[in-house]
Amino acid sequence: MCGRFTQSYTWAEVERFLSVIGPARNLRPRYNIAPTTPIDVLRLGGAGRELVSMRWGLVPSWWKKSLSELPATFNARAETLAEKPMFRSALKSRRCIIPASGFYEWTGKPGAKTPHYFSARDGRPLAFAGLWECWRDPETQEPMESATIVVGPANEWMRPFHDRMPVILDWCDAGAWMAGERLGELLCHPPENALHEWIVSSRVNRSGVGDDDPALIEPSRAA
Length: 223
What we know:
Structural class: mainly beta
Low-confidence stretches: none
CATH class: Alpha Beta
Helix content: 10-25%
């Protein structure tokens, strides 16, 4: 699946690959993003593409209970998007791109797992297919926007590390995904030879104060 990832890119890269509207702004690099924390999300707004902050972990608009009772929704399986009540409405009308500079997966046995970092071979940001929703807290009536990363079966290169992977789109297909075009095609063809990988520090196993710095994605000396 995809339970941790990174977002570290410049505004120039955002403008080049995301073609967003609005003035340039500072972007805080993040190297250990965990579920329920804020993430950058690219969506189609009324005037064009916009980069906004959302909770990572989709909350459907009809959810009436507390967030603590919500099941894990930071990933959504590509094969069942149209069937699952959690995601089917968002698939129809609220698709987005979640830009990423890389993501983590683990191999090995419980208690001795090895973290691996994956990023694009060409150094460009990755375009994860995503879905977003707007939910209103039933107690405070405060609105909150949230998103999920769509994941599918791993391609042949990824299978030694995990049997699932994020649905990674070519940037030229980002607009088609957000517009709802060729959805089946985009979901079913994971790219081959698009990623490279290396082992990183086990510090990434934690998420919190002091565990979100560039050293997390450097090759581990113990590797």
